[in-house]
Each structure stands twice: as C-alpha cells, then as structure tokens.
Write a structure and sequence with these properties.
213 residues; alpha/beta
Length: 213
Amino acid sequence: MKVVIFGASKGIGLETVRRALEAGYQVRAFARSASAIPDTHPNLEKVDGDALDPEAVRAAIGPGDVVIQALGVSLTPQNVISPVTLFSNATRVLVDAMKEVGATRLICVTGFGAGDSAGRGGFFYQAFGRQGLLKRAYDDKDIQEWIIRRSGLDWTIVRPGILTDGPHTGRYQVLNDPREWRVGKISRANVADFLVKQVESDAHICDTPVLIE
C-alpha cells in the first residue's frame, strides 16, 4: 500500500513521513521542497510540487493510494491580516484528483476550532487563537472541512489541539464525542502516529476526532 503525504516537508507532514516509513509503507512525500527532506529510505519517494497545481497533484496519486493532507501556513502578518485560501483551494484540487484516479481514502489535518468544534476551546483560545491571530487560517479550514464532508470520499478529519515539538510517545487522547471536546496540547509526532494508524483502519471514517495529550 502506498501512502501519499501532502505537506510532507515539515511539521506534522514530515513526522507522518517518518511514522509511515517505520510502519512499513511505501511513502510518496509531496511538497514544494520535498527534495530537501533530510530523511532517506528505500521506501521513500520525494516529489517537488505545488499542492495548487492540478496536474502535479493528479500525477502524485494512484488508484487505491491512501492520501494524507497535512498542509500548514506560517503565522506571518499577511496571513493574519489577509484572507487565507490555501487550505480550501488545495483541498478542491486534491478531491478532484482523487476522484479522477480512483483513490478513495483521505485523512486530513485541520485543527481544534475548525468546523463544528468552533467555540469549544474557552475564552482565551477563542480570543487569541480561533478568533485572533489564527482567524484567517481557521476561516479557510472551515471551508476545507465543508469540501471534504461533501466529497463522497472515505474521509477522516483530524483536529489536533495546540501543537508542540514534543517526542513521539504514542500516549494521547482521541476525543470522538463532541461533549468531550476540549483544547489541550499534543506533539506533532503523536498526531503523526494517529494519522498513520488510520491508513488501514475504518474506525474513524466520516469522523472528526480531536487529539490532545
């Protein structure tokens, strides 16, 4: 089985590349700077490309591949002040490409506060995160989730809490019930652990789990 990871050059994407290789999968790492990924492995293929380029995205996916989308944007003044469109536009391109080539399994990282988890993080998270510096990004993540929910694919939307650079421990909470949703910290490595565990699992298809440690 091949796992295609978009946004693979850093953050959660890079950690997912590493966890997927450890799990024995063939991995295609797609990013604008994929060739700069320091890891080498016989099962790793690095593809430089733009997630907004339909031809490049379509060429990176094959029938039956499992796709993990882990895109991110930097917290720059531009992304704080101006509308962010990367998440929604790239997801439209990806969903169309998957349908064209016959790939049906999509695992996507958004974040706690997106979609119907908005407003559940408490005053400070709302004021300084979801409705503060991250507002533009989360407005676009809302659209991204809407696109995925209506895609007809076997999707899982993963909403991690506040991300850290902590180690991979495999110890974290998966909150499925909206009554349990709350903000908390989680390492990017542990998010990656959960993503890879979904590759051959149907436990969270059409589900939106929140992850915290």
